[in-house]
Amino acid sequence: MTLMESAVLETANQEATFNRLVDALLSELQPNEYAKLELTGEQSQFIRFNTAKVRQAGCISDGELRLTLMGDRRIAYHNLPFTGRWETDWQQAHMSLQVLRQELPQLPEDPYLVLPEGNATSRDVYTGRLLRPESAAAAILPEVMGLDFAGIYAAGSLIRAYADSAGQKHWFTTESFSLDYSLFTADGQAVKDTFAGNEWDAVSYAAKLADSKQRLERLSRSPKAVPRGQYRTYLAPAAVAELLGMFSWGGVSEASLQRGGSAFKLLRRGEKQLSPAFSLTENFQRGLVPRFNDWGEIAPVELPIIQAGKLLNTLINSRTAKEYGKPSNGANGSESLRSLKLPLAICLPLKFSRRWIRAYIFPTCIT
């Protein structure tokens, strides 16, 4: 049996064990007790490179369960390891349930506690076309021979699962890979990039490395002093991703807006707006992350957040909905972006103060 076939078998075994745990734990619940069980797991391979040589390699099989018990307006949870072996996992889960029962009466009441409800179910399995674990290094190294290449390759399946006492149940697995690497010049400067996706394509990989090598050659040239002034500045996709990551720092969270912690409060009031060339959408069509949230609710496949520079929707989870009387749209516990999408081509002026520059984002895509 190959490493890849073994990983597929292990994932199937984990799903069976999770379902069995759910049935057993829910049958143990007493009247007026509510519970939910969440699973995070992975079956993955990693290879670490340095100076275009393999320095470390291995495979990971890991899992963690979170058992949450609710009752009498109180909530408590325990995290425990998940092995996929019934006898071990049931013993740990059953013990955690008993401990939570003892802890729950001692905790303060939660006025915005969200109890499990509804009957949403889903099972999404996204298979990829990945490199065979035993031949991954041989596929990566030829393009970087002779270069000062360092990075880490990770590939495999990611698992997320949810079940609760209301009858909701979700299972999500997706296969993907990521090669996060840097190419260094003789004086220590670096070109950093990432090649990632669901399907490994040798032609695309060669094109990505060709672009990195070209940038490395430019980086090796003597620097040119740039006088103060205004310039059109290109931001690479990685830089755009860093900027958009800040939107999840409470930016498009309804709770943060209600509490005054969001930088977009003027957009909500209509007093300001971003460039009309800028739009941002939460889009789950590629299956990179699960659509269900911490309460088992399923988010829309596509939710426009900012359209033509105007704040159209915010991310609202059930707890925020209960606290502020808003309809939930299936956001996660932190109301952060999970699968954002930016239009293919935008030219967006970003204003910075004082020493800042006027920056323009040229055609790029982030999903």
Topology:
Blueprint: H1 3-27, E1 34-50, E2 53-71, E3 74-81, H2 86-103, E4 121-126, H3 136-140, E5 148-164, E6 169-184, E7 190-197, H4 202-219, H5 237-245, H6 254-259, H7 265-269, E8 280-283, E9 302-307, E10 310-311, H8 318-324, E11 340-341, E12 348-350, E13 359-361
Question: What can you see in these coordinates?
Answer:
The protein has 367 residues and is α+β, with helices and mostly antiparallel strands. It folds into two domains: 3-14 and 28-218, PmbA/TldD superfamily (PmbA/TldD fold, 2-Layer Sandwich), CATH 3.30.2290.10; 237-361, no CATH class. Helices cover 25% and strands 30% of the residues. It has helices spanning 3-27, 86-103, 136-140, 202-219, 237-245, 254-259, 265-269, 318-324, and strands spanning 34-50, 53-71, 74-81, 121-126, 148-164, 169-184, 190-197, 280-283, 302-307, 310-311, 340-341, 348-350, 359-361. The strands form three sheets. Strands 1, 2, 3, 4, 5, 6 and 7 form a seven-stranded mixed sheet that branches. A four-stranded antiparallel sheet has the order 10-9-8-11, with no helix packed on it. A hairpin with a 4-residue loop joins strand 5 (148-164) and strand 6. Helix 1 runs parallel beside helix 2. The longest helix has 25 residues, at 3-27.
